[in-house]
């Protein structure tokens, strides 16, 4: 019997399948009765799960990031798919085919890591090359960087997602700089590499995807600046000379301004050409991926349009279904 992937679920289908469960919360309703809310996912997507008349015993049957056999019924609610869960049982990971839950396999991670190192080591600026090298030779850092997601929901929200996002963004920067000779190619490339580095500590991804305490209290932009300061000091020892402070300042400015606007979480708006370019290119990559995921997971399977998404203020046109 074929596996029932999240993305293929229709309305009022009977569910009996193993999924990854995270973000569990035991909540009271208006009458004071407890219900369990959770995120249910596989590599095809994720949906909200609701279990009515739950209790503390059910809540403690599994932890965030566990594989769980979910029984219940799918339904549309406010234009989105969800699963009304009737039964939950934790499944031993040894009995699970992890390929159903992994977006990027080991070979793909290794390929992306090789591309990342190749682009960084090809930079002409020796100071920026030494700075990048201090990250690349730090195996503990690289292991975490290659495993981290780029987010918990909106884009590249899976193990290896940060690496994939960064490598793709670096390739995009290399593609556009020939048309803008006034932009420093190496500086923009190192900005693409460093802009989200703080996410290795901002996010928690050992079991499920969530925010760490440090991530919620400080955030990846500030955390990224701290990482750059640390590696800049190491790079001066590696290169045997001081890195120009203006150069380090420009790199840190790209990190703190890459969200583009103060209301989007940037403590500073872009004030250099490289920071401006990084903001637009990062937004492009993130939005193309996240909007594409909304189209892929859309419940309006018979319509060329997605449902209206309040988070982006629009519906999306998917095109006429192929015959």
TrEMBL record:
Matches recorded under InterPro entries: HD/PDEase_dom, HD_domain, NA-bd_OB-fold, NA-bd_OB_tRNA, YhaM_exoribonuc/phosphodiest
Superkingdom of the source species: Bacteria
Record-given protein name: 3'-5' exoribonuclease YhaM
Domain spans labelled OB: 21-88
The enzyme's E.C. designation: 3.1.-.-
Organism: Blastopirellula retiformator
Leading EC class: hydrolase
GO biological process: rRNA 3'-end processing
GO molecular function list: hydrolase activity; nucleic acid binding
Keywords, sorted A to Z: Hydrolase
Start and end residues of each HD domain: 163-286
